[in-house]
Design goal:
This protein is mainly α and 391 residues long. It has 13 helices and no strands.
């Protein structure tokens, strides 16, 4: 009995894959080392690709809206060369990102520096106030009063000269370790700067030549794979690009809405650090669902140093706004932008955070949306083939 060529080809591919998988399993340690080396080698280019993907969202918006007039005129001639429009859009994108970072730095850094600088005085006053309050509350119990009085801290009695002397001795004795650590830190810093520069250059190249690179990838797919498989891969990649771009846009919109809500409510309630806390929560809210809690912890600590009662009100306000954000804003803004039901948004954040932390949270929502869409298409296709209508 003669085996068809297509079946023989599939059998040979299966045998080759099994042999490769068995070899990799036998040399798992070497494979792991090779993969780590490859990841370190390609990390600047992977980082550049990720940066290009993120910057492509605002760059595409600028190119389509701000430079829409630069298209073809009535005679079919472009008013501006496309390469020039692309370069101007990329330049404006970098300018906008730099402006956002500068505004956040000008708003957050001065207030945060001022707060940290006066933190020692504030903590002293807060501790003294707390001890006086506790003494008033337990005035009828002399044992507790005596214990609280024993907790009184005399900040002037601290021997700062002895502390500075110990620090100086530590620095003298550990000068060699400090030098080695400094050299190691300098090498790491140079490596990080070099990788960042390569990633930035690679991202710019991708953004300026994205149509050409896309055409080259499509040609390679059709040259190496069957036509149907190549078309399916292109379709999945197009879906993934659309979903991830929508997720980035939705996440940024949600962070701005949440930060604005906190700033407005805190301003109405006349709480301290309204602008600072609003900016911090807007930045940390870029981490799905749990990011705002980080901003809440920092904000509650800062307000606690001014007024414990206002800190309590802030925590209550945060819980209320978090419920509004978690149940109304986030699932509708981010969930609808990626085409994912609210329950699956929560599922993706939970699983992604458990597996990969913050990066997993950011990746698993659009990834789950892609898988959800592909599985839904498969289910509907199978139902049509079986001529079944489920109600």
């Amino acid at each position: 009995m003669e085996i068809p060529k297509t079946t023989m080809k599939k059998l040979l591919l299966l045998i080759a894959f099994a042999a490769l998988a068995f070899t990799a399993f036998q040399w798992i340690d070497g494979v792991a080392v090779a993969l780590r080396f490859l990841a370190e080698l390609l990390s600047p280019f992977l980082g550049g690709a990720a940066l290009a993907f993120i910057l492509n969202v605002p760059m595409r918006f600028l190119e389509r809206n701000l430079f829409s007039w630069a298209g073809k005129d009535r005679r079919g001639k472009a008013r501006l060369p496309r390469s020039l429009v692309r370069a101007l859009s990329l330049l404006l994108t970098f300018v906008l990102v730099a402006l956002v970072v500068m505004v956040l730095a000008l708003v957050v850094v001065p207030q945060l520096t001022e707060t940290i600088a006066g933190l020692s005085v504030t903590i002293q006053a807060a501790v003294t106030k707390a001890l006086l309050w506790a003494e008033d509350q337990f005035a009828n119990n002399p044992q507790i009063v005596a214990w609280l009085e024993g907790l009184t801290i005399d900040w002037r009695s601290i021997d700062w000269e002895s502390i500075l002397s110990n620090v100086a001795d530590f620095l003298r004795n550990g000068a060699g370790d400090v030098l080695n650590s400094t050299i190691s830190a300098a090498k790491s810093m140079v490596s990080i700067l070099t990788s960042s520069f390569i990633a930035l250059v690679f991202a710019c190249y991708i953004l300026l030549q994205k149509e050409k690179l896309g055409l080259q990838c499509r040609k390679a797919l059709f040259a190496l794979l069957p036509k149907k498989a190549a078309e399916r891969i292109i379709s999945v990649c197009s879906l993934s690009h659309r979903v991830f771009s929508s997720f980035i846009t939705g996440q940024c919109v949600e962070a701005v809405i949440l930060g604005t809500m906190f700033f407005v409510v805190m301003s109405i309630l006349k709480m301290p650090y309204a602008l600072l806390v609003g900016c911090l929560i807007a930045v940390t809210a870029l981490i799905p669902i749990v990011g705002a809690f980080i901003g809440c912890a920092v904000g509650a600590f800062l307000i606690l140093m001014v007024s414990p009662m206002q800190a309590l009100i802030f925590v209550i306000m945060f819980l209320i706004l978090q419920q509004v954000e978690g149940n109304l804003i986030y699932p509708h803004v981010v969930g609808s932008s990626v085409g994912l039901p609210s329950i699956w948004v929560l599922f993706a954040v939970t699983i992604g955070g458990s597996l990969m932390g913050v990066v997993g949270m950011l990746l698993f929502i659009p990834l789950t949306s892609v898988l959800y869409t592909l599985f839904r298409e498969f289910v509907y296709k199978r139902l049509r083939e079986k001529n079944i209508r489920v109600k």
